[in-house]
Design goal:
With 563 residues, the protein is mainly α. It contains 33 helices and no strands.
Length: 563
């Protein structure tokens, strides 16, 4: 029997009962009502042959004829729907699947296929409903959970995805892959405390799941558990052809430096610089570690890449100071270098402070920069580096006089005004922040980041909403898919009382965001409440609370509106 014939027999036998042996009429002379089955069988065979020849349109027509003759055959219906999908005819696939679930409502696989079609058509709400229906029908159907997670991750609903991973972990407690995905999802929502046991369990179940070592090491580094970070990162780097080798080696160097093990830190940085993965920041990190290790002469020998002229020259000048050479002129000359201190600090200094710890690298740099100023060195670069470092350390009130001094000595400049606006806004001094943001726009009239900053600040404080709307409309013209800008405009419409427009922009913002975001979910909850949908509001506030339990006001809103 050919494969096609065998498949046909299997498909039809799963739906129709065999005739009883004691009935000779049924055996040898089928009644007229069985003819549709025979006709359907003929159409199915024709479809199979046409599909093999690549004649998909004709194959689908034959399959449709077979399905019309046998509407209660779930296998045949699924085959037709999948043929439509392969042919990218999603409209017909959807119509057929919607008809099928009304005719055979208790078939979980049909609901999964319908959900997949909705997913392809970007109708995410209906896709989620279909997958949830499949799980309700068959709670043990892992395909339904997997499909639901796929939609939730695509729509940035990581809290819902997390719930599914937790259920899967209960259903398949010995699946290393499920525990790993659960840990990864927890990392993505910044719940590292709960991610650790899941990743450790995955590694226990499958010691070859080496990427778990990398994630565990990165979590320990962020927590400041440097010895544990070293242990896991070293185990990860024992393997070859690793996707995160560069990041792991850089983090390992940082962990060693934080513990004062500078030789081992430099060894890792040297390996990075000798590899094809070498980046500009690795040169700067090596200069920093050499200075911390008391090897200023070696730091002075380093010539960083051309894209860090200012920071490279700064570290070299600091090396001169450390070895007792004349250094004042080297620092004042920083202001004459053709470069952009704003871009360099944003790209490189912030990363160095994160990796090598604000408490360690941050305090070291603040000490060195403050000492230079105390020596009477007047340099725009020195002042901006000090201000940026203080902001990273959340010492905003100390950064303000430094930045005001920059404006007094060097005149208006975008970076200083922006940093002052940041400090004042974080200190809840709105008029002062507004002054500096408007000064930024005078320098760069089409800067969407500043438009968003100012417009969102207006929205949060329920002031100048018409101006805020204009600012965000223009920002989105310049950067249409920016999730933060979409959120800001949505929040402006919320403050105006326009719930429908607000909801439209917030939904777009959630999809455009880099990851699930507590503040966006909080905003969505408030908008649903404005629309009178308390149930959906609570769902979004609970998501926000799971993403960030410290987000102000969310827990109170949940408590207030729970019936």
């Amino acid at each position: 029997m050919s494969c096609a014939l065998l498949a046909a027999v299997l498909i039809f036998s799963c739906v129709h009962h065999r005739p009883r042996l004691g009935n000779p009429v049924t055996q040898f002379d089928p009644p007229r009502k069985s003819r549709p089955r025979a006709e359907a069988f003929s159409h199915f065979l024709a479809a199979t042959m046409l599909e093999r020849r690549g004649a998909m349109d004709q194959a689908i027509a034959e399959m449709r004829a077979a399905a019309d003759l046998q509407p209660d055959s779930s296998s045949l219906t699924l085959r037709l729907i999948r043929a439509y999908v392969r042919n990218q005819d999603y409209d017909n696939a959807r119509g057929m699947a919607e008809r099928a679930v009304t005719q055979i409502p208790d078939n979980a696989n049909l609901w999964i296929v319908l959900g997949e079609i909705y997913h392809q058509l970007n109708d995410y709400d209906k896709a989620v409903e279909a997958f949830q229906k499949a799980i309700e029908i068959d709670p043990e159907n892992v395909l339904g959970y997997g499909a639901l997670v796929s939609v939730q991750e695509k729509t940035n609903d990581l809290v819902a995805a997390l719930d599914i991973y937790q259920r899967l972990a209960q259903m398949t407690p010995k699946s290393a892959g499920v525990h790993f995905q659960l840990g990864l999802c927890l990392v993505r929502i910044n719940d590292n405390e709960n991610a650790l046991p899941s990743l450790e369990r995955a590694l226990e179940l499958n010691p070859n799941l080496i990427r778990a070592h990398y994630l565990i090491g990165a979590i320990h580094l962020e927590k400041g558990d440097n010895e544990k970070a070293v242990d896991h990162l070293e185990q990860y780097l024992q393997q070859s052809n690793l996707p995160d080798a560069e990041q792991a080696r850089e983090q390992l160097a940082a962990a060693f430096a934080r513990m004062g093990r500078y030789d081992e830190s430099l060894e890792q940085l040297d390996l990075l610089l000798e590899s094809s993965a070498a980046k500009t920041r690795h040169h700067l990190e090596r200069m920093y570690v050499l200075l911390r290790a008391g090897r200023a002469p070696r730091a002075l020998e380093v010539v960083p890449p051309d894209d860090t002229p200012i920071l490279g020259a700064f570290f070299r000048a600091l090396a001169r100071k450390k070895i007792g050479e004349p250094y004042q002129a080297a620092f004042t000359a920083l202001d004459t270098i053709d470069g952009n201190v704003d871009e360099e600090t944003s790209s490189f200094l912030n990363e160095l402070l994160y990796l090598y710890s604000d408490n360690d690298a941050g305090k070291f740099l603040v000490g060195e920069l403050t000492a230079l100023r105390d020596k009477g060195i007047r340099s725009n670069v020195v002042d901006m580096l000090l201000a940026r470092t203080l902001i990273n350390l959340e010492r905003y009130e100390e950064a303000i006089p430094v930045l005001e001094g920059v404006l007094e000595h060097d005149g208006p400049q975008h970076a200083a005004h922006f940093d002052l606006a940041t400090c004042y806004e974080l200190l809840q001094k709105v008029p002062e922040a507004e002054t500096h943001l408007k000064a930024c726009l005078e320098i760069k009239s089409d800067d969407p980041e500043i438009m968003n900053f100012l417009g969102y600040m207006y929205a949060v404080n329920k002031m100048k909403l018409d101006e805020a709307e204009k600012l965000l409309t223009r920002a989105l013209e310049l950067d249409p898919n920016n999730g933060y800008y979409l959120d800001s405009l949505g929040w402006i419409y919320y403050q105006m009382g326009n719930a429908d427009k607000a909801l439209d922009f917030l939904k777009k913002a959630v999809l455009a965001a880099e990851s699930d975001d507590a503040e966006l979910r909080d905003h969505l909850g408030d908008i649903y409440l404005l629309k009178g949908d308390t149930e959906k509001a609570l769902a979004e506030w609970r998501r926000a609370n799971r993403l960030n339990p410290k987000l102000e006001g969310v827990a109170d809103k949940i408590q207030q509106h729970v019936k």
